[in-house]
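Hi V.,

You were right to ask for the full record rather than a summary. Here it is.
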Amino acid sequence: MLGATLVILSLIAAAAYVAKVGTGFTLVFIGAVVFMAYKRLPLIVFTLVFTVLLTAYTWNPWEVAPSGIWKGFLWVMLAALWLLTFRPLRKALISRPFLKAYMRMLPSMSQTEKEALEAGTVWWDGELFSGKPRFEKLLASKAPVLTAEEQAFIDGPCEELCRMYDDWDTTHKRGDMAPRVWDYLKRQGFFAMIIPKKYGGLEFSAYAHSCVLVKLASRSGLLAATTAVPNSLGPAELLNHYGTEEQKNHYLPRLARGEEVPCFALTGPRAGSDAASLPDTGIVCKGQWQGREIVGLRLNFNKRYITLAPIATVVGLAFRMYDPDKLLGERTDYGITCALIPRDTAGLAIGRRHFPLNVPFQNGPLSGKDVFVPLDTIIGGPKMAGQGWRMLVEQLSVGRCISLPSNATGGAKGGVFASGAYTRIRRQFNMSVGKFEGVEAVLARMVGYTYTMDAARSVTAGAIDGGEKPSVPSAMLKYHVTEMGRQVSNDAMDVHGGKGIQLGPRNYLGRNYQVIPVAITVEGANILTRSLIIFGQGAVRCHPFVLKEMNAARNPDRKQGVDEFDSALFGHIGFTISNAVRSFVMALTHARFTHVPEVGETKRYYQHIVRFSASFAFAVDVAMLTLGGYLKKKENLSARLGDVLSAMYLASMVLKHHENQGRPADDLPVVEWACRNQLYKAQEQLHDFLRNFPNRFLGGVMRALIFPGGRAYSAPSDRLGRTLADAVLNVTDVRDRLCKFVYRTLEPGNPLGLLHEALVLSQTAEPIEKRIRVDGVKTGKVTALDPPGQIAQALAVGIISETEAAALRDYDRKVMELISVDDFDTRELASQAAPDEQSASASVSSFHAA
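Predicted structure:
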């Protein structure tokens, strides 16, 4: 802290001298100091340069040199800087005393928290915390691609599965998928995408796994969720990474063939988002197993919300393991452990089904009373006892990057694909609904959000294939992609109007709209994820110095600990000063001179991300220094910092996705909208963070350095939004790229394929319709009000030809079929209700009849 104070005071002294003398050399001196801080020169280099500059400055014969108190003050500052470069003296005077105070402030950390922090890897999120992200690193990573085998699976089995799936039959009539759909899922390996080929699985890349879910989600959220669960956090994933060879050889081939259906039981009535506090127990004891006495586990548990539990044949289970009699060693509390239990194990009870928001994917409770199992049911065997939380957190970070973001993206793609076509063919006031400015704005948001979602899920999946286990990005994607998916779903319902709210076989939006809150709730509720996880984990895990300082403070070797703490502390001080200077300079210059790769027309967005990265890193350090552990309790502040980090991450993913696709020029408006939207959010969240910062003085100082000229970044313009809307209201390459993997095959059972056909036909039909209006309706030759009558009259008076009339009739028939909604006999709807509800319905009907 002394180093920071000395440098800041030196700048103040120099500024005071500028006011007194006002010469060019003084400005050069200050500019050099700022440049050194901006470039993050090491302390010794900074001190040497400062020495030369101060010598020339104070002994400059060409101007009036400073004298008296200022001259003495500057030399004292220089002497102090030289003392700081002498590490033994610095450690004795500063680092060692500060370490003692730091250790008193440092909160205790449980083993569970430690494992959560250490899980996964630091990737691009770490660069954004640096204040100086190296985009060359991001751009150098390989673009994710599908192999020929993976593409064939999407074009073949995925296409056939979408074709055979009937959403209305599943959700309304059966309350479950048809047996042939279940059979197809198992036979074709949809539950085995992550299982290695040597065990009979597909062994797909993370990107291919994601693309399969996107395609299925464009057809049905239920279908995608059912497929996602066995391929994300579940027995196959845990066995693959941690299982014994015996466990792998027994279970993985059976899971790959669909002979076993897995579920994983983590959440219970008393442990939802706080999964680490689960009360379910496994006590090491002796018991009977297959006619002989062995040392095993007696399990007692109560779980709920477990997807696939009602049909599971093997149950993955998380519990706390205890050994009170010390049968395994000296430890009595092993902590969270994971085991794999066959369904027919005595004492294991599978409950009745839950009914999540009228979308009947298989989900339900399960429980166990004194369930005795051998120790080798522990995943990985007895040696992995107590390692369950680390296993879950490591694999959850990967699963959260794939399952929920992919499902949300697929639903959004389907919503955009349908909404662009529907609002083109649906007319009100003699104009396509999509041409109204209000609808254009909504379509633009849908397009921009969907592009952002697709970029985030594909680029991050590519990073996983490159060996990363991005724990913090997984939280960012889980929250922001599902929230954007919710917004796109809401928007799609809005632009469809009554078409979207009438359930029935013709409704292609309703069930996905209903099930959206499930994605918001599971795998870490979104409020929790935003308020605690994104920044809470990122601040320690991704910051270049915080974790080093914490580890140094906890180092049992005190001498080594002081050395490590000294290096981290003074690195941190220089880091904070540099980010303050960089933030101020880039804000004044609008980051125009910031070095970034030469990337053509998107260069400015790279520069703005660098600018916000410096401002973010500076704000984080001030907040952590002044609030310490209290920052964790200030959830709104943490959430806003997490939003800034996420906005920078998502904008980076958009830019990388654009590069991966070969920089298509007609995608530039979408890229601009997506980047502007995210960077505007970063600006506004930083503003709200400063406005609500508890220390008003420090909040003002930060504002002066982060927003010296005020908030200058603007949201996407209406004109830009109109361009995005036009891209999906027409058959364009932008629409095709954005909606890649959407199930669009033209066939009677696929409304998206039929909508696209109508969109294509509209481009031919609309000019003919316009001719009828101009040459017929306005001249009085055509007086009919309905399109069939207008077509007949226009044909009769020679405005259109027979061929054109036939094309218009066909187009009008198809449009009417697409905008139609379903209706039902009361008895058909009542047949879905409970007997007492049927009675109530009958009473109401009798009352109205009377």
